[in-house]
């Protein structure tokens, strides 16, 4: 497996290669085809990475027709093709530039515009998501949710709204994280925690568990209050200026915090933060911002990556459970983090770690893809659910909020609800010596 | 441009009735993504693209083509390396990528029945839980389709011991160029009468389209051992290969890569080959555990005797996978060390390997065009990778010249212009270097027995004046054998 550059290189910034130059790297071998979720679904060239790169080259100096744009829109941005490419094609850069171009030049239909406006006015804003918590809880409690799902009304009105309803998790209230959590025992590191928008608002228990695990391993955990969205959702959807605005704010926040490492527990956020220099360059930021972005990227680590590097000190108590680990695309393909979460889980006594068939195939969540392309996302979700069922696992462990919500929803739809937990929650339960049943009930 | 009223575009409504709106591609930009297969220096935008899902749909599409005299070109995953799936602007491209169902895995009979669009590796994946695999293993096995393998009679690293695709197909359902559905063979081996499966496998889409394929499954060996040996020179590596074969050992695979190919593979997948090697040899031994152990000792000793400075064994699957990953990625990996390249495919008798490699080096030095060498050393199948910069004026032409000269070398040494990639459009003009006009005329007559109107993948395999320029002796009009009464068309 090709190691994807993490963007954490500390050397002098290499000159940014032009879009045309990057296009030229593809030799048309087709090794990406079987790894591409949309090619797996539809089996046509235009919905494969090779075909999309061909379309990018074709339309380089041409207008973007709706026929062409649909194929860029259908890409999940899972980056499985980047892992499978022997020629080192930077499809991630190519699709991000292309999406920015689509947003700048292509006029979408009114319905699509409205949906996108709604999604991007909501998800990157923690406070707006928080405002939804009350109504969402009331809605769940009054039984309207079950009625609405059974009736299929929402599905008929808008498949996207239906998808949004389906993946919304039951909410839990957890105490807010303190700005500074002291290390347990000898202090081994000072880390900053990115709380994220979706994670922070809809799955706050994951952040709590993350902070507790870090503290138990001897980290002083700083959670800056001022932090906002990291910009990943915007960057992955071609909203370059918005993404750069979020990126600059995040860089400033963690520069001020004065931490050794920024720990991220959401795969999509981590992947984006490790490529901040590209995000800022895409929006035309100058070299000084690029340097600051690179410095932050170099200090950014996924929770599991960081914990393996740090080495364990806290005792792990037995947690007898059959668990399957799902690779979030932006961890495995986006950051090359595959072994670390498995290593941490295997080190828990009594935990039986099962392999999912087709581990490299996206579950269909892909940021806000499941809201924008609900049909394709649903089909991929069903595939992942089928694979998960075949393992007989009682618990699914995964490091991205989107994947958690998407897979839980697909399992429920298939009539086989399963518990889903973040690696942080599993480690937390083991370190605190909780019973496995707590974890099985605790999941979203 | 074909006339919209008479060309393939005119067939669109009827093709939609067969394959559904979703199964017919007419938009120019979308169609154009199919303009090339695995080699991009041949390209042509197909007149129309269809994506059938059933044998019935393929037959109906081909019948429409036959009725209207419109040419058709079959295509699988589009990974071919001879332009065998190069589309026709005046034709229909029939893509089998949606026909990807493994219909049956019949372990007691050691057979699998699959649709043509199934990825080669997916046959092995389906059989693996039962302790079986599908033996032919092209380097692109995770993506190339079984249908494409049938068309090209594809090989792979393990064909040295296990044979090519043709040795692993026992039954076919095909759609003939007239649109008839015909079954050849079945699960039983060796159907009596003419070996029509042997005829069809390797026919490169000129005799019809395979729509269902029955393949032999091979029991996974009790033990597999892989050995990686590094030599200072290609010559020393070649000597080791000869010594291994002379000792009566039949490895499952013997692969050799030169320094340039190793550099590319390292850059792509960090496969951890020994540093400073002029040649790297991968020898895989499989079979009964005791035999493999004994052969392993013998091969290690022979490699050392031939001058290997490092010999490493890989018994665990992860290490073995890494060694093979380097080899399998070699073609595309060259993209990391060169802006453009040509993958060549030729065969020489194993004993001529050393001589031919020396001549290739001379060619490379004289032309200033770098050549990386990757090959199935056990059966003398060379894959020189001719590297050039397509931005440099004239470089592509010089590379093509070197590439062609390499094929001449192969023929000169009693070899062949292709080992496993097929002739396609890329090598059709090289056919006269191996075959006489009479040979080619007979092949053409044979082809016409299946495809009297010449609509099945025209201008592939056999040279034509349009493709290769006017040449005395090229058959046009009535076939001489027909004219002389020695043969008749039916």
Automatic annotation (TrEMBL), chain A:
Chain ranges of the 4Fe-4S ferredoxin-type domain:
15-46, 66-97
Q: Fetch the PROSITE patterns from UniProt.
A: 4FE4S_FER_1 (PS00198), 4FE4S_FER_2 (PS51379)
Q: How many and how are cofactors bound here?
A: Binds 2 [4Fe-4S] clusters.
Q: Which cofactor(s) are needed, names only?
A: [4Fe-4S] cluster
In the record, which residues are listed under signal peptide?
none
Catalysed reactions, semicolon-separated: glycolate + A = glyoxylate + AH2; (R)-lactate + A = pyruvate + AH2
A molecular function (GO) term: 4 iron, 4 sulfur cluster binding
Q: Which UniProt keywords apply?
A: 4Fe-4S, Electron transport, Iron, Iron-sulfur, Metal-binding, Repeat, Transport
| UniProt-listed InterPro entries | 4Fe4S_Fe-S-bd (IPR017896), 4Fe4S_Fe_S_CS (IPR017900), Cys_rich_dom (IPR004017), Glc_ox_4Fe-4S (IPR012257), Helical_ferredxn (IPR009051)
Q: Which domain of life is it from?
A: Bacteria
Q: Give the EC number(s) listed in the UniProt record.
A: 1.1.99.14
Q: Tell me the Pfam families matching this sequence.
A: CCG, Fer4_8
Q: What does this protein do?
A: Component of a complex that catalyzes the oxidation of glycolate to glyoxylate.
Q: What is this protein called?
A: Glycolate oxidase iron-sulfur subunit
UniProtKB/TrEMBL annotation, chain B:
Recorded superkingdom: Bacteria
| Entry-linked Pfam families | FAD-oxidase_C, FAD_binding_4
User: Do you know which SUPFAM superfamilies this protein is assigned to?
Assistant: FAD-binding/transporter-associated domain-like, FAD-linked oxidases, C-terminal domain
Could you tell me the keywords of this UniProt record?
A: FAD, Flavoprotein, Oxidoreductase
Cofactor(s) listed: FAD
Question: Where does the record place the FAD-binding PCMH-type domain?
Answer: 42-220
Keyword Oxidoreductase among record annotations: yes
Q: Which one of the record's GO molecular function terms can you name?
A: FAD binding
Q: Which PANTHER family match?
A: GLYCOLATE OXIDASE SUBUNIT GLCD
Name of the protein in its database record:
Glycolate oxidase
